[in-house]
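does this look right to u?? flavin mononucleotide version
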Amino acid sequence: MSSPLADAVKLPCGLVFPNRLSKAAMAELMAKTNHPNPKLLDAYESWAEGGWGCILTGNVQVDVDHMGSPFDPALHSEYTGKDEALLSEWKKYADACQKHGTPAIVQICHPGRQSFRVAGRRGIFGSTLAPSAVPMNIGNGWLESIVAAITWSQPREMTRADIERVIRQFVDTARLAADAGFAGVELHGAHGYLLDQFLNAKTNIRSDEYGGTPAKRARFVLEILAEIRKVVPADFCVGIKLNSADHNSATFEDTMAQIKLLVEAGIDFMEVSGGSYEDTRMMGYTSQTTPQAPKSERTAAREAYFLEFAKGVRQRHPKLILMLTGGFRSRAGAEAALKDNACDLIGIARPAAVDPKWPMKLLDESIPDDKVQLQLNKAPVPFFARWLPLYLVGAGAESTYYADQIQRFARGLHD
Ligand SMILES: Cc1cc2nc3c(=O)[nH]c(=O)nc-3n(C[C@H](O)[C@H](O)[C@H](O)COP(=O)(O)O)c2cc1C
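got this back:
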């Protein structure tokens, strides 16, 4: 019997992914001038040859003043559709990703309060933007407070004008992606970045029309989605990456209410993840300093970190195309998630940094299951950083290690 991983999926916009395996977004840390460059394109050409059903780019920042890292590609100013040089650079990026027919989706992001002091052209003393002026909190001890103050500046509550400007920046970046020939965009609404900050009651304590109830907190995201739809072709995909919530947490029903609004607004797919810089569970680290994936008893037998939440969304929205990302390391684990009807798409990040052509093995039925699994150890934490909060340093070490793997295969080095 053929693997369910090999089945195609059609999205509401009409876009077809030829199989279920999605290369998940990974910041490559390669864009020194914050533009796509030949080395970045080399990395994507490797993924393009890898047999993926979909390629999600690493996060592209919608504002060069506010970035996730100093080396992300970013939009530098308004995009009017007239800048031929800019368009030609992004066309090359889209062509590299889609060279062998795999649709590529650009992940678009604003880090909000999580933008490091050194990431973005606003300067190290420039404040970050956020729905509310809630500072970063990575722990209550004096050490954590000092680390937080050194790493991030104080956020500033966004004004109406800020909100309008950031919506335009998301729209401009989506339009650039569409004009360049990408198949779609994914709004980065997870991992504690700006869209997640608006959705979340802990970071959004506004009392205007952008805060208060779950629906009001979702308004910023819904406006971005609606404004993007106005400027991109009907067959251009717009998806979102969102954080899961624990079933018994106070935020579970709020999150479900927001997902319902996104479904009603016609989102093409939703990627399920979790965590933030304050609790890095997307990388298998929690703020309880446990270097392990947060799994319930039931999910412990499975690989995926957020399987139970995906199944909860699936129950309420059977037609929503769901991508589940985090923890997949084997063909058996990926197939089990599909057979369990937890999701339609399997998002794969770290294994894709180690083996850019991993789908070739996953989809090759002549290779037995026990030969298609990866054992990825935790990236080592440098000795000089061991006095810092383990979950934060551990997740940082993971990101740096795997970004380095991407840079290695972009240079043609494979071991
Ligand atoms: C090097 C690296 C960079 C990442 N950058 C992003 C990013 O730009 N956007 C994003 O949504 N997630 C990012 N992530 C998180 C992954 O997309 C994914 O959610 C997480 O690694 C769990 O999946 P995995 O277990 O398959 O690695 C990154 C992860 C790594 C390892």
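Residues 24-27, 58-59, 107, 188, 190-191, 241, 273, 282-283, 325-328, 348-350, 398-399, 402-403 surround flavin mononucleotide (CB under 6 Å). idk if thats expected tbh
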